[in-house]
Amino acid sequence: MTNTTTATNATPTNATNVTAIGQTEIPSHPLPSYLNPNDLGPWGTFLQQVDRVTPYLGNLSRWVETLKRPKRILVVDVPIFLDNGTVAHFEGYRVQHNTSRGPGKGGVRFHQDVTLSEVMALSAWMSIKNAAVNVPYGGAKGGIRVDPRKLSIGELERVTRRYTSEIGIIIGPSKDIPAPDVNTNEKIMAWMMDTYSMNQGTTSTGVVTGKPIDLGGSLGRREATGRGVFTVGVQAAQRIGLPIEGARVAVQGMGNVGGVAARLFSEAGARVVAAQDHGGSIYNEAGLNMPALLEHVSKTGTVAGFEDAEVLANEAFWQTPCDILIPAALEGQITELNAHQIQARMVIEGANGPTTPHADDILNDRGVLIVPDVIANAGGVTVSYFEWVQDFSSFFWSEEEINKRLVDIMKGALDAIWQVSAEHNVSLRTATFIVACKRILHARDLRGLYP
Ligand SMILES: NC(=O)c1ccc[n+]([C@@H]2O[C@H](COP(=O)([O-])OP(=O)(O)OC[C@H]3O[C@@H](n4cnc5c(N)ncnc54)[C@H](O)[C@@H]3O)[C@@H](O)[C@H]2O)c1
């Protein structure tokens, strides 16, 4: 019997809390008390994904419960002085999902809607992603419930520094290494690195990745996630006989990931026909002028108002006639409500968790190929790994070398996953989970439990 706890049927039980190591029976476990079984959020999606992969884990499935609860959760209060002299409090998190294969690794998100469930799921997807591309990290993630657009630059710095001090007790170059995510960037990484370093009394460049080049950052890191999306996208397109030249691409999110991926596809001859972000949606059948659009976004913060395009209703974005759809904004964007309308042959998940499990099934049934987040957007963490290695040795590589190593790792990982997908006749997502969960649980098995 395998564990069947899912987002839909998960209810707290009084079942034993002892994992039956060495036995074939795996007892059902209650959900942790801090979760609401009726509203598991993104964490529920992750639990369903683990349940789907469990039958393929063989003997290692006896360890699968370790994946269903994060190793460590830190919830912190982040008080700061606002510019008007009052004190505001924000809720912050750092979750270390699994560290069997190495230190925690994962970004920090600043967003008003961040929840613990979301950060838990994002940390777990980091465990899977790091194992899928075989970098020696566990999975972690952090976040603050704050809308950074409402803060002045001084307030943003104070929130970042106080949060870093609060989570400083569990992060560190060999413990857990944060990086940028939604609404965080190089500048914020510089403040995090400085705060941690000042508290430690030593310059510690390896505590975060995604730093400015002059502070131990890596060439190629800013573009790495988008480049990885592009690399696996091209590989997958080749395998299904979809030429990139002339392919129509729709992209949700014109930030770090979506903007770079869109530009690279456009440079390779594809037509980026539609774009959506928090400000609105635009369309141009002939293909959006990417350099001009990216300049517009960097000036105004949104695709809305771009002159050389038609305005599209936000719901209509999902029905755009296109060959490749790249969700590169937030999770839970492709649902059972819009999955039927998607016209693309291939979805490349630049964002983390953009497709709900139900929508995943609908798209799979309709023959739409999904290149899942846990491989498609792993380019960022791969170059973060390069950055961390360079910081340890204080010896820096050329951009050419970095991009070559990145492309080699991404191609190799996709090849391996494609093979597992064909072997077991499962989706690329399940195949990625099979490869990754086996690596994580094998490490757990080798290490055993201590104390
Ligand atoms: N930055 C990285 O290296 C990296 C690595 C792996 C995964 N990711 C994931 O990629 C996604 C995007 O991250 P990013 O770094 O590009 O963030 P970003 O802040 O640079 O860009 C986010 C984009 O999403 C858009 N957006 C926000 N809310 C939206 C909404 N409600 N509807 C439509 N668009 C909306 C924003 O306008 C912006 O264009 C996230 O899911 C993140 O976790 C990022």
UniProtKB/TrEMBL annotation:
The keyword Secreted does not apply. Keywords: Oxidoreductase. Residues 218-448 form the Glutamate/phenylalanine/leucine/valine/L-tryptophan dehydrogenase C-terminal domain. The keyword Mitochondrion does not apply. Pfam families: ELFV_dehydrog, ELFV_dehydrog_N. PROSITE patterns: GLFV_DEHYDROGENASE. SUPFAM superfamilies: Aminoacid dehydrogenase-like, N-terminal domain (SSF53223), NAD(P)-binding Rossmann-fold domains (SSF51735). Coiled coil: none annotated. Belongs to the Glu/Leu/Phe/Val dehydrogenases family. This is Glutamate dehydrogenase. It comes from Orrella daihaiensis. The lineage of its organism: Bacteria, Pseudomonadati, Pseudomonadota, Betaproteobacteria, Burkholderiales.
